[in-house]
Every structure is written in C-alpha cells, then in structure tokens.
Amino acid sequence: AEVTACHENTVASLKRTGFNFEINSKISNKNPFYEAYFCSNHKAAKLHSKTFDAPENPSQDFIAIMTCDDADKNCPIVYGCSNRFSLTYKDPKIYDDSEQREKEYDNTSKKIATEIFYVFSKIKNNDNRK
C-alpha cells in the first residue's frame, strides 16, 4: 500500500455532482487534504490518500471495502476489520488524455455512489432485523 493523492479529475467529478471542497493548506501539495461538503447540515467528508493503517483510521471493528483492483490483490488481509469486501472498479484515469475524460469519471463516480448506497442500505436493513 502506498500514499499517492486524490486525483484532480476525481475531485472535479465530485464537484460536478454538487460537492464543495476546501483544501487544508497545512498538508503537502503532493497529497492535498480535502474536506468535501454536500450541504451545510452535514459534517465534511475528509478526502486524502492514506494507507489503511493510518492513525486516523479505525484499528478494529470496521468494514474494509476494496475498490481498487490493485489494493484488492495486494492487501488480502486488512488487520482489525470485522469484514472485507471486494467492490472493484475500472480506474477512469485511462481516459485522462481523451475527450471522454469527464464522462468516464462521472460514470465511475455515479456507479460507486449507487453501489455503495445499496450496500449501506442492506447493512442498515440487517441491523433493523436484529
């Protein structure tokens, strides 16, 4: 696992869907630390590249969702997680130098949002049955 950065095209796609971003200027420009807001009533989502064992991540009783093929293959064990799922996506960066760039990033963002929403709705439903 390695720290890279949240890709600028990913941030641009999320902006097109309605997210607002602030960048924490105290963090290196090589790995910007974004705070993403969808509406003022909710806490900001923190968006930056980090390894799964970074201090700000939980160390036990969490669910690991592997969304990158590379991470899925190279991190078969995520210590401390109560469950690990593979939900991988084709990286839209292969379209970075094409006219399809925005469309492909937006399609990938929409697909991830739809599938994660579905997964969380099932988790919520399962909790209500107990």
What does this structure look like?
The chain is α+β, with helices and mostly antiparallel strands and 130 residues long. It contains three helices and five strands; from the N terminus they run αββββαβα. The chain has helices at residues 8-16, 69-74, 101-129, and strands spanning 20-24, 33-37, 45-47, 62-68, 81-89. The chain has a three-stranded antiparallel β-sheet with strand order 1-2-3, with helices on one face. A hairpin with a 7-residue loop joins strand 2 and strand 3. The longest helix has 29 residues, at 101-129. The mean pLDDT is 84.
Gap from first CA to last CA = 36 Å
- Strand proportion, as a percent range, falls in 15-25%
Helix-strand category = alpha+beta
User: What proportion of the residues is helical, as a percent range?
Assistant: 25-40%
- Described by the principal axes of the CA atoms, the overall outline is globular
Q: What is the C-alpha radius of gyration, as a whole number of Å? A: 16 Å
List the strand order in the largest sheet. Answer: 1-2-3
Number of distinct beta strands: 5
Oligomer: single chain
Overall pLDDT score: 84
Q: Which segments are poorly predicted (pLDDT under 50) over 5 or more consecutive residues?
A: none
**SSE ordering:** HEEEEHEH
**Count of runs of 4 or more consecutive helical residues:** 3
Largest β-sheet summary: 3 strands, antiparallel
